[in-house]
Amino acid sequence: MNNQSAVRLSGVNKNYPHFSLSDVDLDVARGSIMGLIGPNGAGKSTALRIMMGLVRPDSGTVNVLGREIPSEQVAAKWRIGFASEDMPLYQPATLEWHMAFMQGLYADWDSAYADILVQRFDLRKDQKIKGMSHGQRVKSGLLLVLARRPQLLLLDEPTTGLDPVARREVLNELMDVLADEDRTILFSSHNTKDVEQLSDTITFIDRGRIIASQDKEIFIENWRRIRFEPPEGFKLPALAGTTESHLNGRLANMVTRRFGPQVTQALQENGATVHAVERLTLEEIFVAEVMGSREGDNT
Amino acid sequence: MTNKTINRPGFGVIAWRLAVKDFWLIRWPLVGYAAMGALALLFISINHPLTFHAGLVLMVSALAVVGAHLVFASMMHERTNQTLPFLLSLPISYLQYTWSKLLFTIGTFSLFWLALVLGIFAVVNTRDFLLAGMLPYDMIVLTYLALAFVLTLTVGMMTESLAWTIVIMSICNIGISLFMITMTKFPGLGEFLGEPEAVWNTTAIGILAIEVILIVALVGLTILVQSRKTDFL
Prior knowledge:
The structure holds two protein chains of two kinds. Chain A is α/β, with parallel strands linked by helices. Helix content of chain A is 33%, strand content 30%. Chain A has helices at 44-51, 73-77, 95-105, 111-120, 134-146, 164-177, 192-198, 216-222, 261-269, 282-295; strands spanning 5-15, 20-29, 33-37, 59-64, 67-69, 80-84, 152-156, 184-189, 201-206, 209-215, 224-229, 242-248, 251-256, 273-279. In chain A, the strands form three sheets. Chain A has a six-stranded mixed β-sheet with strand order 6-7-8-3-9-10, sandwiched between helices. A four-stranded antiparallel β-sheet of chain A has the order 2-1-4-5. Chain A has a four-stranded antiparallel β-sheet with strand order 12-13-11-14. Chain B is mainly alpha-helical. Chain B has one domain. Helices cover 77% and strands 0% of the residues of chain B. Chain B has eight helices and no strands. Chain B has helices at residues 11-25, 27-45, 49-80, 84-88, 94-126, 135-159, 162-184, 202-228. The longest helix of chain B has 33 residues, at 94-126. The chains are: A alpha/beta, B mainly alpha.
């Protein structure tokens, strides 16, 4: 295990009757924030549950914060904060009761910080969970995790279903967490905007397979859409990394995942006039990666 | 790193806190069942056939209901209300979770059971019109209720199925009346019900021993099955 890794999955497989997580290799560096993006049913939650020891892989190794999972999950969980969108709290109890419950378990519970979070998240301690909105429940769950100041945060769809204000509050708080360089966040989402704002590393997962994983800036830098005007009888040159191309009369465009000067140069050498080179949004990159993976043409 | 200096509670402390949590969440129904049990003993202690039988029915019902509530409120609801992920995100393994649930549910049921057993002994020994010959029978019936509770609880834990839990609970509840009637006619037991002194013969002790062995075996089987599970959500 790399000492700089907070989470390391090697060759992890998990088979269900209608779904398989296949050969998952994942390395989350300490102090980083990784966004795990995938469509619904891609395997994000399964991967996170394997990291928590809640699901045992059929094969492969899992190491979290230097502990083997699932055998050393209890030792690891003391330093992991896990929150999931579908992780309700106890309905008849108040937020204050939950805070006291957590304080009783965790010696490193930070009461002052918990009170600050109550204010920042606009929550009421004396309110029962059953009387809260979805957003308040999600924020309450996050508060209970954050106030423990865990070294690793595993968050499964933390912003799903939140209104823009609540989402902003949550994202801001996660940014604050990273002020401590030793803390790590791995969060799953199908909302690429959240991931783009927060993450420094991005992993795409689809149909139980990791299809791409690298630094966010590298993703952004490598993907480009090129708009150009082809000459009569133009034939697109064979360029490694081309994921799609369209010819619409006199205007054409192509998308590449390996952009560099050689791409525009090759087009120009074939008589094309390049009009624009545009960056792709993370959502566009995500969709292209998934479609490419599904078509089996990810070269 | 700061975690090296933090004094973390052991599993015993965590299990206790989880049990206190469970108790708090169903504290008011438990108070109600305790009152129901006390009322049952009061009825039994009144020298009138109607109140005596009403007391017996109330006592059996109180134990059956407290068992059902413990199974559903502290365990099945953890799944149906989806609070299990929250619980399992805490620093416990699934086997430890199983232990904490067994300790809480069986411990709480045992308190009620013991209180009723002691109450029955006290009432029978202080009321002249109640015959001590019924005590072995009472103990066997009360232990049957404990067995039915443990069976429902352990089937619920092992199958994680609400449907199976309800099926087993229904069968056990239907079985109460049949069991009570069967025991009144059971050779070596039924004929001593009208005796002024309790007769703890090999039949009575044997039936009680079988019930206790089944309870222990069910708990052991549950621990074994739970320790072999690989997926908890």
